[in-house]
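Weekly puzzle thread! Below is a chain. First person to post its structure in token form gets bragging rights.
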Amino acid sequence: MLTATSVPLLYWIGRELFFQRSTAVFTALVYLTSLPVVRHGRLAMLDGAVLCFFLWMMACLLRSRRDLRWGLGIGVGFGLLFLTKGILAILLGAIALAFLIWDTPRLVTSRYLWLGILLGSTPVALWYFAQWQHYRQVFVDAHLLNQSAKRVWESVGPNRGDPWFYGLELLKWVPWLVFLPHGFRLSWENRNLSWARLALLWSVSYLVVISVMQTKLPWYVLPVYPALSLIVGAQLNRMWNPIAAEIEHSRPIARARIWFGLFLLLAIVAWVGSAYYAFKPDSQQDIQLVFSTLALTFTVAAILIIRQDTQFVSVLLWGTYLTLLVLMMSNHWVWELAESYPVEPVAEMIQKATLPGQVIYTSYPYNRPSLNFYSDRAVIPASEADLQKHWKTDPQPYQLLKLSALGSLPPQTQVWMAEDWVLVTRNPRSRDEE
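Winning reply:
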């Protein structure tokens, strides 16, 4: 719900920045049809709340240029950000402050701004003080260092990536990524305007910071999508209203051949994907429908672009929206679930075979909180050596292994099977015989 609320908030920001209402509408619609935002918003992650609170803070900041009292809302947004994601609020707050200094330096001395920051920071300070008073050094080490600051210079767990990690993540921003290079050029040409200053400062500085960080996670890039939507929204409006943008009316779509080629390539890829899932032995009609909708959208858009018809903007918006609607109605929008085994059958097997409180060791390399939740047991990843050690030393060991390991199990072993996994334990009588 908070992620959904961020859509009208971005429209509000667009109305504060752009002279034309249509630009704000395009900005909000591009953001609304962004796959990463929709997907992670539906996962009910804290990053959706970050989007909402940060856009609220920026909307209040822009509104305070006309009414200083809105500076109080800036502090409220900053406080909510800090209570949600801690150290991330410092980065986002620095971006907002840098924009103020660049665009409207008179607001930096506004008493409403600093009173709002004081009001928003008070509950943050009280909460952090209460945590420190209760947990002392454990809170400092676990929360402030290991789970916050340490992520900058050291990867937390296996979440390490190259500096271009988030560049690859942006490839998921189809089809709007196609317009981004020309949109950046348009922003740079208009850097004397507030919208261009904010979009450039916001997108570039945030991408640089998260790319330098050692810990890389896909959802860290989410706060950059509103800024990129501002850039693409301005570019789409420039083509939609060629007369207002002082473009020759007969050819409002610049570089039409390049964009035609890109969308034609995307359409071919989508048609191939649709055909693949249509003729696949275990046909998955919902995925085929997703690819078909996307392919039809890109095909019609490519034809309209080469004909210099600006209605391709409407086709892309509606087609992308329908594609996302079909995807979210399917069971495949959380595609990470297909990368591993289904949890619920395995959890049911563990519940039936073990008593409450039993610890199970598994050969699966990663911890799966969902398996712990559904089985109501602690399932701990372990190496091959640790598995053998627990098998020999534990009085009644329980281990979750791949089905392929069934042939190498010792005799007198009890076995339960679910999916491609087996739960094994030593027969109590074999322990007595030893």
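Puzzle host: Confirmed. Bonus trivia for everyone else. The mean pLDDT is 88.
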